[in-house]
Amino acid sequence: MNHTRLNFSKRTVTAKLSEIVVANPSFIRVHRSFAVNVPNIEMMDRSLQMLMMNNGDQIPVARRMLAEVGAIIRSFNAGEGGVIGVQ
Question: Which residues have CB under 8 Å from 61's CB, separation 6+?
Answer without folding.
Answer: 30, 31, 44, 49, 50, 51, 69
